[in-house]
Amino acid sequence: MSLTRDLTRLIREKPVTDGDLEWASLFVLDTLACALGALPTEPARMLKAVAPLAQADTARKAFYLGGLSHILEMDDLHRDSVTHPGSVVIPAAWAVAHDHDLGGEAFLRAVLAGYEACCRVGMSVGKKHYRVWHNTSTCGPFGAALAVAELLGLDDTRTVWALGNAGTQSSGLWEFLAEGAMSKHLHTARAAESGVLASFLAKEGFTGAENILEGEKGFFAGLCLDPIPEAVTAGPERAWQLINTSIKPWPCCRHTHPAIDGAIALHNEIAGEAIARVHVGAYRAALDVCDRPTPEDPYSAKFSLQHTVAIALADGRVDQASFDADARQRMVDERKKVEVELAPKIDAAYPESWGAEVIVETASGRRLSAARYDAKGDPDNPVTAAELSQKARTQLVAGGTSEARADDLIGAILGLPDNRPVRSLGLFETAGDAGPQVRAARSA
């Protein structure tokens, strides 16, 4: 027996209820709205140039949709694995279900399975993996491959081969962030595509390493300094990992969200008074990725605790415009007042809890504080179905979808549990229909 075989059996033995399918449809809506909302951006134009839908095969469709899904930094986040499963699993499953003309129920079941594989592998990599490797990119191929294996009806052995070849394609380094490069979109694009290719090959009998995770020269040995192999199969009776995944209300790195929550709460208490000093206490991973006092472009601003906290305190909100050139210039002096450091109690709770503490000292000497242990959108502090639908509608319209088409698409996606054919939604027709006006990497 191997971890990949045990994982395959665990997932295939988990019961799926009507409620699980409804949950899955909500996450599909969130991911696809993120993708279509990104259509007018410059990175989307570049993805389309190398993956034109009119000529794309199934794997390249997954590549295109996977890249789109991650551009706006609004896609979902699974805390315990530190992965964005939706932007990898859903594009891969959608491309296959579309090209094979499958129904919504089979598609949603595959999405549940893919999230489970991605998140369980992600929970096993250990904290140190994330310092160099982007978990979504390294663990995502496992989720994409498992989802596609379900749609193709692969038996356990061929599914294990697919996971073996998904794992050998794992990659994705954080170095891009130091230069504000666009590689993060490539990470999700390639993870989705790799999973599709791995399962398609397995269907043909192309073998993959069964011990890809725990083998002497496998995934853990090569990429993980402190792996937790038992996490791959722990707690098989738990709810589906998709249900434990968080929805993002703000278009920036999830590590900044607990601090944004606290800063927004303090905005009204400050009531426009000048700020003298701001202290942000966070966990180590948040500091490793988001300690960026002088962001010089929209992307680095989305990964800056200093910027996100400063603008949340100033404006009482965070949206796409919070990261443009005017907003960054307006916050130059305010960012200098924000100090970030490790908060041991909050760090000890990570990754089960993503928290932050924000302390503000005003010019008059007042001291205000807010602590958050679960960010808005976490399973412990969830968004409602209505809030998620409104988020999706806003993104769809911003991406160039008409209001009527947006409403129809939302209803159709939420109707997938009734087994509506995936192809009938015409998503790729919409995704290939970006308008002539392209926003200059506002959300890159």
TrEMBL record:
Top-level taxon of origin: Bacteria
InterPro entries assigned to the protein according to its UniProt record, in alphabetical order: MmgE/PrpD_sf, MmgE/PrpD_sf_1, MmgE/PrpD_sf_2, MmgE_PrpD, MmgE_PrpD_C, MmgE_PrpD_N
Outline the extent of the MmgE/PrpD N-terminal domain: 23-225
- Residues in MmgE/PrpD C-terminal domain copies: 250-405
Which PANTHER family does the record match to this protein? 2-METHYLCITRATE DEHYDRATASE (PTHR16943:SF8), 2-METHYLCITRATE DEHYDRATASE-RELATED (PTHR16943)
**Similarity field:** Belongs to the PrpD family.
**Name of protein:** MmgE/PrpD family protein
